[in-house]
Amino acid sequence: MSALGTEGHPARVAVIGAGPTGFYAAEHLLSRKDLVFDVDMIDRLPTPYGLVRYGVAPDHQKIKSVTAVYDRTASHPRFRFFGNVAYGTHLTLEDLADRYHQIIFCTGAQADRRMGIPGEDLTGSYPATEFVAWYNGHPDYTHYEFDLQQEVVAVVGIGNVAVDVTRILLRSADELARTDIADYALDALRESQVKEVHMLGRRGPAQAAFTNPEIQELTELANADATVHPDEVELDDLSKAAIDRTRDHTTMKKVEILQSLVTRNAQGRPRRLILRFLVSPTELTNQDGHVHGMRLVRNRLEATPAGTLVAKATEQVEDLPAGVVFRSVGYQGVPLPEVPFNDKWGVILNEKGRVLDPQTKEPLPGLYAAGWIKRGPTGVIGTNKPDAAETAANMREDVGNDIVLTPTHPRAEDAEAFIRERQPLVFTYADWRTLNQIEVSRGGEMGRPRVKFTRVEDMLAALHR
Amino acid sequence: MNITHVLAGKGGQVHTARPEQTIREVLAVLAARNIGALVVVDEGDRPVGIISERDIVRAAVRDEQLFRHTVAELMTKELVVGAPEDDLRVVAHTMTERRIRHLPVVVGDRLIGIVSIGDVVKAQRDEYEGEIAILETRVKTEHP
Do B90 and A352 touch (CB under 8 A)? Predict the structure, then answer.
């Protein structure tokens, strides 16, 4: 037989997860002429794009233009998509190892970190990601309910998810109606009684995780006035010294934007954003099982030996009345059946994308990871491209050295027949292109980018299945 | 991005030396692992110093018989350590300013990893490359 990685004997790869990282990994493997790969991309959802479809905010359509690149990868003759097929449910590691030379996990960071404080599980306290998945029409979240009858909301965290949730809560229904937000979410948000959103950062303005365009947008919303507490946007000595030392323009600009809010007069807009810094919730208070407010402790900044400024609680406390709390304090990967996991970091145990044996710490042949499940949730969508490139380079090297799995059914037709047997309701990329056209044309009639299918049954019906 | 994200992709293994080991043994590990420094730990796995290529080069100029010396004699004892939550941008700045090429990462007094200046540069490069990739895509799709 010819060497592995040639036309007659391609290296067959299963990519688990159809988010940005999965597509970048596929692109890196398929784009090289020296080694021939077959890529089968498998996702538990019927549709591709992962968080680009179900995470990126509906009012940020331009960010979704990256999918044009993914579609190009998907049109490669050696690429196939199997949607609605779940690793661990329809397919085991053994099933895949029997049909592929390499398996790469690109499953992201699906779990919310908890705040670890009393009252976190009261009604009205939600993980921000569940709200995001719900308003984006993720099929697993369509039946979720969020209490939008409260006037005061607290969002814990100031990363990009916290910013998205805050913005969606503050926008008017008319603004949202021009997006591809899920219809049921639009209906619920139309009835929203939310008047105030308090966004809580545990460190100071110079350490805030949001980007400058994100915060600028948030403070210029047509439907909400933005305010800060003057003493909280005043820089402490450590932050001042850090800025003087690094002369980091991005940070200086960020502080400038936030401090400019001190003198800005309210324009009488219907809703209000209150940006808070140097505060951490220590407890959610309870009234008849529902969130009633939170106890906040004020923080001060302290430098680590390496120079990072971290928050330390002081004795000073404050009570913030709030009927709803969204927490967005970090994410972590979820362990996958039969794949070694590093609990400490919440990622697959790996070295530069090669999955390691937990005992020997040596690579397990044929198993790889890329993206958030490899390094943790950080960076923008594009950061996953160089990340996937690193893993893909190792995969090519291992094919060259014949360090691969030894499938007994390495033919493409065998794998497809097997997947269809395990999950008859499989979705192909052609199916997705059909659904996409329907969604876009439904949206066009209403001046929206698309109207999403949010239920798998509806997708099947649209495909006459 | 912080130190956690760098350590996550490094397999969680840290190569260490004991103070009583010889420089000969250290050089063998550095060469075999293709790395530039070992964290020196005591019997309780607490970091007490770091022994780097540079420490060894400096000693070699003074004494050609350095192979027999112990780690304790040559190691750098003033350790600058990192914490998992340390921000990479700050770490890059600190490492450049203080001319440190390896930063042991500790939680309490327990060693949990090591970050090299190469790791930091690579993580930052990936972040910038990623941003450029997205901007390029947007320019191409919005202004074809």
Answer: no
pLDDT digits (tens, 9 = 90+) for B92-110: 999 999 999 999 999 988 9
d(Cα B119, Cα B111) in Å, to the nearest integer? 18
Contacts of A361 in chain B (CB under 8 A): 11-13
Question: Is the minimum CB–CB distance between B139 and chain A shorter than 8 Å?
Answer: no
Are the Cβ atoms of B93 and A246 closer than 8 angstroms? yes
**Residue of chain B minimizing CA distance to A371:** B9
B4 near A CB under 8 A: yes
CA separation for the pair A172, A188 (Å, rounded): 12
User: How far is it between the farthest Cα atoms of chain B?
Assistant: 66
Share of chain B above pLDDT 90, in %: 74
Size of interface A-B (CB pairs under 8 A): 123
Beta carbons within 10 angstroms of residue A317's beta carbon: 13
Q: Which residues of A212-236 are buried (b: 16+ CB within 10 A; e: fewer)?
A: eebbeebbebebbbbbbeeebbbbe
Round the average pLDDT of chain A to a whole number and report it.
Answer: 96
Q: Is the dihedral of CA A258, A264, A267, A273 positive or negative?
A: positive
Residue A302: closest CA among A354, A247, A351, A236: A236
From CA A126, how far away is CA A37, in angstroms rounded? 43
pTM of the model: 0.95
Report the DSSP beta bridge partners of residue A314: none
Contacts of B93 (CB under 8 A, 6+ apart): A245, A246, A307
Angstrom distance (rounded) from CA A310 to CA A253: 21
* Cβ atoms of A421 and A110 closer than 8 Å: no
CA proximity to A100, closest of A432, A351, A368 = A368
Residue among A244, A331, A344, A359 with most chain B CBs within 10 A, to mutate: A344
Residue with tokens 């999950």: A423
Counting Cα atoms < 13 Å in the Cβ hemisphere of B45 gives 10
How far is Cα of residue A286 from the mean position of the Cα atoms in its chain? 30
What pLDDT is attached to residue A1?
Answer: 60
Q: Over pLDDT 90: what percentage of chain A? A: 94
Pairwise CB contact (< 8 Å): B83 & A356: no
pLDDT tens sequence across A256-309 = 999 999 999 889 999 999 999 999 999 999 999 999 999 999 999 999 989 999
**pLDDT in the model for residue B64:** 86
Give the alpha-carbon dihedral of A188, A189, A195, A196, to 10 degrees.
Answer: 110
Q: In what order do the strands lie in the sheet with A279-287?
A: A279-287, A290-303, A309-321
Residues A223-233: tens digit of each pLDDT: 999 999 999 99
